[in-house]
Amino acid sequence: MTTVVDLAPTAWSGRDDGPGNEHLRWHKAVAPLEGRTDSGAGVLIGFRSDEGVRRNKGRPGAADGPAALRRALASMSLAAPVRVFDAGDVEVVGEDLEDGQDRLGSAVTGLLDTGSLVTVLGGGHEVAYGSYLGIANSAAVASGARLGVLNLDAHFDLRSDARPSSGTPFRQMADRETTLGRALDYAVLGISQPSNTAALFATAAELGVRHLLDDDCTTANLPAVESFVEEFLGAVDVVYLTIDLDVLPAAVAPGVSAPAAFGVPLEVIQRVCDLVARSGKLRLLDVAELNPALDVDNRTARTAARLIHRIVTDAIAHRA
Questions:
Q1: Is 153 annotated as a binding-site member?
Q2: So where are the chain's domains?
Q3: Where is the region Disordered (predicted)?
């Protein structure tokens, strides 16, 4: 299978302490995809876009997120060998966001249909609609597998605008599912009440969107968070997990379009990711809104890379 991308993967490099698995780091484990079809392997694909953020009146710069995420991952140590390939990047040129989302979707579908665990490196959160197209058109979902979309985010991103943006992807998903005679199974954890209008809460209720407020996602309330996630996982067959880094406190993730005034503690986000990765149902992950130009000491990139590292290694080990 050939995955069509705009930018071919570049060589990974990083700290090198010597040969052998005892010194293994991501930059030594990742290889160019080059048409491989290794079932059960992890595949990274970048989505270079901040057009959706621009349309949503946010701070541009997320198009440089994929490169920053790869740099942050490169020198992370691996406890055991893992098969991971880099497919390169899909790039949004100019204002043609919709074409970029379609092309990302096609690439993701092809990768999923080979049995790969796919991780999309964003990019603004407009990446979510492209990722969704990829899994919604996959053979598993076409064969009747129940798709669940779990969003870790301060925002519902359910706006109904004439022009798609980083604020509309989950409304676009819901509308498309309706046209296909299905309902979108969408849950979001980390919602900031001050960052979402009453109209958005009403839309979420109308669409049957389950959510937890950031106020309810504290470490003290972790059992309730775990129950929320486990209930979601129990109702679906395949999972698409999307992480908007603005779900984290601004001190942990300053390099995003809209830093959180409160946010969900990293310990809680990590526990949610563990539950999803170890469920055996995760097929697709994306990480959105990293803006390297606004990142302080690469804090956001390092945090995001640690989450990717943890999710991908766990999910590959627990594939159903």
A1: yes
A2: 21-319
A3: 1-20
**Positions in the chain whose pLDDT score sits under 70:** 1-2, 37, 320
244 is in an annotated binding site: yes
* 237 is an annotated ligand-binding site residue: no
Contact criterion met (CB below 8 Å) for 254 and 164 = no
d(CA 157, CA 131): 15
Task: Quote the tokens at residue 194.
Answer: 């001050």
Q: State how far the Cα of 178 lies from the Cα of 170, in Å rounded to an integer.
A: 12
Closest CA to 1 of 35, 34, 48, 25: 35
- Rounded CA separation 272/152 (Å): 9
- Residue type (1 letter), 57: K
Is position 38 annotated in a ligand binding site? no
- Dist CA 157 CA 101 (whole Å): 16
Structural contact between residues 243 and 286, judged by C-beta atoms closer than 8 angstroms: yes
Instruction: Give the tens place of pLDDT for each residue, 248-302.
Output: 999 999 999 889 999 999 999 999 999 999 999 999 999 999 999 999 999 999 9
Is residue 246 part of an annotated ligand binding site? yes
Secondary structure in 3-state letters for the chain: CCCCCCECCCCCCCCCCCCCHHHCEHHHHEEECCCCCCCCCEEEEEEECCHHHHHCCCCCCHHHHHHHHHHHHHCCECCCCCCEEEEEEEECCCCCHHHHHHHHHHHHHHHHCCCCEEEEEECCCCHHHHHHHHHHCCHHHHCCCCEEEEEECCCCCCCCCCCCCCCCHHHHHHHHHHHCCCCCEEEEEEECHHHCCHHHHHHHHHCCCEEEEHHHCCHHHHHHHHHHHHHHHHCCCEEEEEEEHHHCECCCCCCCCCCECCCCCHHHHHHHHHHHHCCCCEEEEEEECCCHHHCCCCHHHHHHHHHHHHHHHHHHHCCC
Spatial neighbors of 220 by CB under 8 A, at least 6 apart, are none
CATH class of 21-319: alpha beta
Please tell me whether 214 is known to bind a ligand: no
